[in-house]
Write a structure and sequence with these properties.
mainly alpha; 3-stranded parallel beta sheet; two-stranded antiparallel sheet; 42% helix; binds S-adenosylmethionine
Length: 314
Amino acid sequence: MQGIDIVEQNIADLSPELLNTLLKDRTTGKNIRWATDNYEQYGEAYRADQEIRPELIIGEHTDIVQPRVTKAKEKQMQRTRDRAEVFTPSWICNEQNNLIDEAWFGRKTVFNISEKGKWRTYKKKIEFPEGKTWKQYVDEKRLEISCGEAPYLVSRYDTVSGKTIAIEKRIGLLDRKLRIINENVQEEEEWYIWCKRAFQSIYGYEYQGDNILLARENLLCTFIDNMVFKFAHEPLLKQLNEIARIISWNIWQMDGLTGNVPYSEKEIENEQITIFDFLSIDGEKEKEKQPIPCKIFDWRSNCSLEFNSMIKEA
Ligand SMILES: C[S@@+](CC[C@H](N)C(=O)[O-])C[C@H]1O[C@@H](n2cnc3c(N)ncnc32)[C@H](O)[C@@H]1O
C-alpha cells in the first residue's frame, strides 16, 4: 500500500497556490468543506461545516487525509454507516468502463480483456471505427457520480486492495483517454493541448470534502505519471497549475440529492443579524437561507452553468 497517499505538505512545498487550487470550491469561491465529522477530534476548524484550509492538512497534520484503504477499520465502518462509503474494486470499474467503450466503439474488448477479477491489457495501438476519430474519443464527456476517490476515472491504485497499478494497465475513463493521446501524438506541445482537453471532458462529484481532495490529487498525479511515462520528465509548475484549475472545476463538491453545495446555507444563517433584518418583509429572509446550487464548467463553450438546470435540460 506504500506510496498511494499523496502528501499534502509536498504539494504545498512545491507551490502553495497549487494546494489552494486543489481545495477550491468554484461555485462559492471559497474552499471545499469537510462535510464529514471524521476529523472533529482535531478541533473546531475540522467541524463538518468548516472549510478545508491548507494549514489544517499540512505540517503536523499532513497525514490526516488518507485514502479509504489506509484509514483505520473503525473509521471505514463509520463512513460506510454515515455516507454509504464502499469503494468499487478496479476489476469491476474496468468491466463497467469496458461496457461504455463497447457502446462507443461498437465492438467488445477495446482496451483489455477482463477475466476472473483481473484483466489483460491489449498492447497494440487502438483502432478507431469508421467515421470516428481519436479526437472525438478524447472530447467525449464522462461523469462519475458520487465519485469517492474517483476509481472509475483514474486507477493509480485499486481503492479496495490498495495495490498500485502500472500506467500501462490502468483502466479509468481518463486513463483510457490519456492512453489514446499517448498513442496518437508525439510532439509535446500538441500532447499537452490534448491532455488538457481530456481533463476538461472528465467530471465527478462527491459529498465528503476529504474524498474530493483525494480524487483531485489522484487526477493531478495521473497527469504527472503520464508526462513522465511519455516524455521522461515532470511537468512545469505552470502546467500543474493549469491542470489543477481544470480539475478544481470538474471534480466538485455537491450533495447529489439536491444539486447544492453541502453546508452552503449555513453561512447565511450564521450572518450577524442587524436591526434591518428584523424590518425586512416576511419571506425575504427565507430566500436568503436557500443553499447554493452547484455550478460546473463547459470548457468547449467556455461558460459555467448550474448543474441542476443542465440536468433539467437533458
Ligand atoms: C458507494 S461509494 C462509491 C464511491 C466510488 N464511486 C466507487 O465506486 O468506489 C459512495 C460515495 O458516495 C458519496 N455520497 C454519499 N452521499 C452522497 C450525496 N448525497 N451526494 C454525493 N455523494 C454522496 C460518499 O461520500 C461515497 O464516497
